[in-house]
Amino acid sequence: MIKIKTDAELELQRIACRITRDTLLEIEKHIKPGVSTKQLDKIAYDYIVSLGAKPSFKGYGGFPGTICASVNEAVVHGIPSKQCILQEGDIISVDVGACYKGYHGDAARTFPVGKIDAKKKKLIKVTKESFFEGIKNIRAGSYVGDISNQIQTYVEKNGFSIVRELTGHGVGAELHEDPYVPNFGKVGSGAKLVKNMVIAIEPMVNMGERYVQFMPDGWTCLTRDRLPSAHYENTVLITEDGVEILTQ
């Protein structure tokens, strides 16, 4: 069941989304060679709690971290670890959520670690741009499939591939709500968008083939060909005449 937010609920969710956005900005300051993903996780936890919110991911389904820290060929859901030390030339996707007075924000970015090669730069750039392609001309009355198709078309036009096993989703009082928001699909398909729906749109883009492999830890998702992957996500409010990006 798709939940339409009231104005009062949206005010709380806007705060959660600002905290989520600011947490990513804080984490970005600390991304450099020699830093462990566990250190980044602690920075995120301390920052979210300092603002009167709770980490949305910590304990969710048993997930142990505040952030998902996915390095290079890890697509999503990487578990923060003292043993995972960032190296020059890596890329890291950081996904984070903050819960404020019962409402969630959810966002992700892929960051370079030091200097990265041109292929990785293009992957990060196209992944981010595909999000903005996805929301072009979207408003109440559009369909989820319109977003999906625009993302897929842009990514594939640029020579990359879209992960299909994982999708975006509604977000609100629950971290994951209806509807599913795939990053591939047909125009006019899926749920109809209505005013005050809130959804997380999150392209997951692979440098090589689209196929993925889930690891025995029950969380980490890797590209099957072990080529890099990037992730970009924002929580978005549907309005009468467009969208409002709550985590930007």
Account of the protein in words:
It is built from four helices and 15 strands. With 248 residues, it is α+β, with helices and mostly antiparallel strands. Helix 1 runs antiparallel to helix 2 (37-50) and helix 3 runs antiparallel to helix 4. The mean pLDDT is 98.
Highlighted features:
5-stranded antiparallel β-sheet; Creatine Amidinohydrolase
Widest beta sheet: strand line-up: 8-7-9-14-15
Percent of residues in helices: 25-40%
Q: Structurally, how many domains make up the residues?
A: 1
- Quaternary state of this entry equals single chain
CATH level-1 class: Alpha Beta
Looking at the structure, what is the overall shape? globular
Proportion of beta-strand residues: 25-35%
Largest sheet: 5 strands, antiparallel
Which parts are unreliable, with pLDDT below 50 for 5 consecutive residues or more? none
Query: What is the CA-atom radius of gyration, in angstroms?
Result: 17 Å
CATH topology: Creatine Amidinohydrolase
Number of helices: 4
**Strand-and-helix sequence, N→C?**
HHEEEEEHHEEEEEEEEEE
Helix vs. strand class: alpha+beta
Q: Summed up, what is this model?
A:
The protein has four helices and 15 strands. It has helices spanning 7-28, 37-50, 118-134, 144-157, and strands at 54-55, 67-71, 74-76, 91-100, 103-112, 161-162, 168-170, 177-181, 198-201, 204-206, 212-214, 221-223, 229-231, 234-239, 242-245. α1 (7-28) packs antiparallel against α2 (37-50) and α3 (118-134) packs antiparallel against α4 (144-157).
How are the elements arranged and paired?
Elements: H1 7-28, H2 37-50, E1 54-55, E2 67-71, E3 74-76, E4 91-100, E5 103-112, H3 118-134, H4 144-157, E6 161-162, E7 168-170, E8 177-181, E9 198-201, E10 204-206, E11 212-214, E12 221-223, E13 229-231, E14 234-239, E15 242-245
Antiparallel strand pairs: 1-4, 2-4, 3-12, 4-5, 6-10, 7-8, 7-9, 9-14, 10-13, 11-12, 14-15
Helix pairs in contact: 1-2, 3-4
